[in-house]
Amino acid sequence: MQNSTSSSKPRTGDPLSRIPPQQLHTMRESFAVLDRSNTGTVTPADVSDMLNQLGLDSAPSSLAAFFPSSTGGITSTSGGGINLATYLNSLASSLAPLSDPTELLAAFSAFDNDDSGQIAIDELRDALVHTAPEPGEERLSEREIDSVVEGFSGRRAFGKSQLAKGGGSGGREEVFRYREFVAAVSGNGGSSEEARV
């Protein structure tokens, strides 16, 4: 065990060390998209333009969250922008507190009765609304839950166990496709093997 660089993610103070390579690549690509002039710096004007294109608020007060003064927070470059290293560190610091994808998959799979990668939304909503939150956290409202599952919900697809039973007519309930959700929030974009199972 002389090799100090193992393939597992080290738990150091550097948040970038905990980002999977594929997600880090995606973060670099997002910087390139924001850096319209290809100068190696993302400016407030770059972010404002992108927010406008997405139909989001681009007021100076909104940009302050991305470009705080150089007295604290993100260190600006001389042109009022941020370079790639600063951008990556800022994003990684925001992502560091998120749960590990394997932990999320294990938690969701407890509700997955047929290992299909789908959970009945009503059952998930009931569990989230009626489970005590972690200390310092607030309980989720049904509206918040609905907004999170929105892009990952649909009618239940027939799983192997349902097909073996003849398909059944009662299994077409509204479901949350949790493997797709975990792939999306972990930066795998649905390309992970777990998301396809």
UniProtKB/TrEMBL annotation:
One of its GO terms (molecular function) is calcium ion binding. Residues 22-57, 99-134 form the EF-hand domain. Residues 1-23 are annotated as: Disordered. InterPro entries: EF-hand-dom_pair, EF_Hand_1_Ca_BS, EF_hand_dom, Myosin_RLC. Keywords: Calcium, Repeat. Residues 1-10 have a biased composition (Polar residues). PANTHER family: MYOSIN REGULATORY LIGHT CHAIN 2 (PTHR23049). This is Calmodulin. It comes from Rhizodiscina lignyota.
